[in-house]
Amino acid sequence: MVNRKELDPESSPRAAFGARLRSSREARGWKQEDLSLHMGISSGHISGVETTRKMPSLRFAKAADMAFGVTDTAATFERQWREMHQGSLLEGFPEYVGYEGRAVEIRLFESGVIPGPLQTREYACALADCALQRGDITPEQAAERVDFLIERQAALVRTPPPVLFAVLDESCIRSPIGGPDVMAAQFARLIEFAEQPNTAFQIAPFAMGGRKPFRRLVHLLTLSDRSLMSYVESQTHGYLDRELSSVVPLMRNYHQLQVEAASQAQSVDMIEQLRKGTM
């Protein structure tokens, strides 16, 4: 075949993804145009992924799973896509996000930074730039982090939408990230989030002191079968847990946190005061 680029699947995760996509397509006797019809994605974009000129997105991976009939198997393109991003994300986090995208209830607690589902792109870029400047990640990984976040947020826009509870430590709104314009847009995003019918938004004020049950990120999921799952992080590791003996106490602590935290009205008022510079 003229101009066919040969791929070495061992050269990089992106090459392995592209080579698998091509071999899966050719095994069915499909041209790129045929796969385009099955995936709802242009043949040019498919060509770019196969030859590593384009990075596949989460949407692309899920569409490939549907086209090749491997959704909900152990060997999905989605799982391969998530493994590609392990270099810039904590262990366990990509797997957690996969479950988050299917959860019916999501409970978030965060300290220090706004949680991902509530971040603006500019805020996310500022955080990635800080990590880049520290030398923690490469420029490519910084871009991957932001792309991953946008894909994560897109997975939460579905019908019916998940119920999303967010309790933020006061430090999240007090920590300036990316400058005044970025923070102003981020505050507007928080107020917009609080106004949605499927959300609940609260601030856990500094005054709670020792009554605050969490000091680090804690995310809790309820899946459609009512099973529970937790995700917590240390500085360097993420931990996904499905054991009821450890998840249920976290759920109980989260409910206690909601009782102690400021109400949604009070929390929105705190944001408004910060926007006006009166707090």
Topology, element by element:
Blueprint: H1 13-27, H2 32-39, H3 43-50, H4 58-68, H5 77-84, H6 93-100, E1 105-110, H7 121-134, H8 139-155, E2 163-169, H9 170-174, H10 180-194, E3 199-204, E4 218-222, E5 228-233, E6 238-241, H11 244-260, H12 264-276
Parallel strand pairs: 1-2, 2-3
Antiparallel strand pairs: 1-4, 4-5, 5-6
Characterize the structure shown.
This protein is α/β, with parallel strands linked by helices. The protein has 2 domains: 72 residues, Orthogonal Bundle (434 Repressor (Amino-terminal Domain)); 145 residues, Endonuclease, Chain A (2-Layer Sandwich). The protein is built from 12 helices and 6 strands. It has a 6-stranded mixed sheet, sandwiched between helices. The longest helix has 17 residues.
Mean pLDDT: 90
Strand segment tally = 6
What overall form do the CA principal axes indicate?
A: globular
Main beta-sheet annotation: 6 strands, mixed
Helix content: 40-55%
Please report the distance between the alpha carbons of the first and last residues: 67 Å
Mind telling me which CATH architecture of the largest domain this is?
Answer: 2-Layer Sandwich
Structural class: alpha/beta
In total, how many domains does the architecture comprise? 2
- The string of secondary-structure elements, in order, is HHHHHHEHHEHHEEEEHH
- CATH fold-level topology of the largest domain: Endonuclease, Chain A
Percent range for β-strand residues? 5-15%
At the first level of CATH, the class of the largest domain is: Alpha Beta
Spans where pLDDT lies below 50 across 5 or more residues:
none
Rg for CA atoms: 21 Å
Total helices: the number is: 12
Strand order of the largest sheet: 3-2-1-4-5-6
